[in-house]
Specification:
two-stranded antiparallel ribbon, about 50% helix, single chain, about 5% strand, mainly alpha, elongated
Length: about 280
Amino acid sequence: MAGETTVGRAVARCLATLGDLHPSTARAYRWALSDLAATRGDDQLADVLGGPALGLWLASPTAAGKEPSPASVRQRATAARGLVRFALDHRLLDAPTAESAVRTLRRPATPAVTRDTSAARLLLARAVGGRPYGVSHDVWVRFRAHALLLAETGAPERDLGRALLAEVAPDRSALTLAGARYAVGEPTRHALGAWLVAREELVGTLQGSPPPQLWVRAHPSTHPRTGVVAPVGMPITARGLRKAFQEVVDVLSGADPRLATCTVAHVRALARPATA
C-alpha cells in the first residue's frame, strides 16, 4: 500500500525496470538512486519524498565527501523524479506526497549547491603574489587574470573561455561576456593588462592574422587522438583553460595544502552580479 514501503525497497524495484532507458540515462539513475538508498534506505519512502529530507539529499556531499556539482544535483533531481513516477504508478506513493516531491524537485526549487569559498579566497590572495617555482611567466599571468576574472564575473567557463580580445574595455576596467558587461576592480584590471602584454608576445610568434580570442596557449600541446600540434599563441579552449588553472593550483597546493580543494567553481562562487 502507498506509504508503507522503505526507500531502499522502492529504489531496488525501480532500478530493476531501467532496461528500456538509454544506457547513459540508466547509469545516471543507478548512481543517484543508489546514493539515495544508501543515505535513506531504511526510512519510509513517503516520509523522505514528501518531507525536507529530499531537498537536503539533493545538495548533500557525494560518496567521496565532495560537494556535488550543479550537474550532479540535476542528475539527482532527474532520477528522483523517475522514482516518484515509478512509486506513483505502482501505488507506493499517494498523489499528494508525489506532488510535494515534484515541487521540491522542480527547478528553481532545487536547492543551490553551496561551496566553501575559503580556499578560493586564499587562492586569490596567492594569485596576486609572486610566481611560484615551476610555473612559467606566461602561464602564471594567464592564470592570475583567469582566476581574478572568474571571481569578478562568475561567468560559466564556456562564456569566459569564448571571450574575445575586442570584448575587453580599452582601459581594461570591464569585460563583456555573452552580452553581459562586468566591471572589474583594480587588481583584476592590472592582471588583465599583464596578460594582454604576454598574449601579444605569444601571438606574435604565429604567421598570419592573430586570433581574436582573449585566451591563447602559452606552450604547444598535442591533441591526444589526432596527434595534431597546437602551437603557442593559438586559442585555448575552455576545457584547456580549466585544465591549466588546475595545474597551477596543484603547484600552489604543494606549498599550501589548503588550496588543494579549490576549483574554478569555488572561485566563481565569489562573484557579484553583472553590472548590466
